[in-house]
Amino acid sequence: MADCNHYQTLNISSAANQAEIKQAYRRLAKRFHPDTNRELVSHEQIAQINAAYEVLGDPHRRQFYDQHLQYQVRLGGAAAGSTWGENLSGWQQRTASAQKHYQHHRRSAPNADAQFQRWLYQVYEPVQQLLWQILQPLKQEINLLAADPFDDELMAGFQVYLEDCRHRLSKAQRCFGSMPNPVSAAGVAAYLYYSLNHVGDGLDDLEFFTLNYDDHYLHTGQELFRIAKGLRHDAHDAVKNDPSGLACLAIATNLCAIACQAVSQNRRLTV
Predict the structure, then answer these.
(1) In sequence order, which residues have a C-beta less than 8 Å from that of residue 194 and are 6 or more positions away?
(2) CATH number of the structural domain 6-75
(3) Per-residue pLDDT tens for 141-151?
(4) Domain spans, the chain
(5) What pTM value is reported for the model?
C-alpha cells in the first residue's frame, strides 16, 4: 500500500473532531462499497480508508499519530504513516492482565462461604443479567437490519441497540470491579471476565460495521458475541456444579486464549 496521510485519505482537516471523522469515514465507506458503486471499487483505496479510520477513530492512537506527523515535519516533511503502528497485541495484554488480576485476589478469608454468597448477590447475578440483556437481542436486531443494511432508518435502529449494549457493558464492568472475588469464586469470575471482554470486542466490530458496511466486521462481532454467550453459560454451570473449583480458572483462560487466537488470525487473513 502506498504511504499516505490519514487526514488526506479521509479528506478532512487535522483539527476535525471525532464526529466529523466518523461522518467522513462512513461517507467514503458507503461511496466505495461494492454493493453500492461497483464502478468506483478500489481495494487499495478501501484498505487505505479503513487504515486511516482505525487510527484517527481512536483518540489515543490518533494522538500518537499526530505526534509522529509533527516529528516527520521537523525532519523535513517526509511522508507520514509509513512506520507508525501498534505496540502490543490487545489479546496478549488482556491475557496478562487477567492472570495478574486473579493471582492478586486469590487469598484466603476467614468467612469464605459468606464472602462467596455476598459476591454472588452483589456481582455475579447483576453481571449475568446485564450480559443476557446485551447478548440475547442480537439475532433479532440483525434480522431486522438484514432487510436493507443501507437503509438509514434501519441502521439507526441497530446503532441505538449498540449504544444500549455499550451502556449496559459499562455498567456490568463497574459492577464486576466493585468487589474482589473470593478464592472460591475464581473460576466463575474468570468466565465472567472473559465474557465481558468478548462483548466489548464484539461491540467494537459491530460498530465498525455500521460505518463501513463490511460484512466481515458483522460476522466477527457475531462470533465474539457467540463466544461471550458460551462463557456466560459456563459461569452459570460452574456456580451450579463446582463453584469452588479453581480448575475453572485455568480452563477459562485456556479456552479464551484459543478463541482469541482464532479471531485474531481471522482478522489478519482479511486485512
Answers:
(1) 98, 228, 231, 252, 253, 255, 256
(2) 1.10.287.110
(3) 999 999 998 88
(4) 6-75, 90-269
(5) 0.57
